[in-house]
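This protein record is not my work; I was only asked to verify it. Would you go through it and say whether the fold makes sense for this chain? Here is the record exactly as it was handed to me.
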Amino acid sequence: IAYAGSRRYLAAAQRKVGVTVEGYARLAAIPRHVTAGRKVLFRGSVGTLGAILGRGKLVELQVKGGGIRRFRTIRQAFRTDPRGRWSLRYGFDRFYKRPTRFRFRLKISREGGWPYLAPSVSRSRTLQVVPRRERHGGSR
């Protein structure tokens, strides 16, 4: 940064300034509840803030809860589209016997060509998986 000065103020010497900027990660609202055996569509976006994504940005959908103490990546990392948008359909197994709460977030890691040094994570979203109702067969 440098200041050339004016009639009133002296010039300031040029100095380098380092600035760390994080990209942003968004995880769109998801349903509050899902029945075991059903699927949920997760969607969101990554803030490019001028970065050219080309093939898209590598991101991870992560989950915590239901016995998982730390955030873990679901499946594997995947790419956004060139505009930073993404979607992922995820199915929940049928085995849940009681309501189970999970927290989901999107994680953006450092990558070559990505201008931001610090990893970013989205705000977490909570979803509860509720057991399927037992169907009791019987004669009419």
In short: DSSP finds no helices and ten strands in the chain. The first strand starts at residue 25 and ends at 27. Residues 3 and 49 are 27 Å apart (CA to CA). The domain at 25-130 is CATH 2.60.40.10 (Immunoglobulin-like).
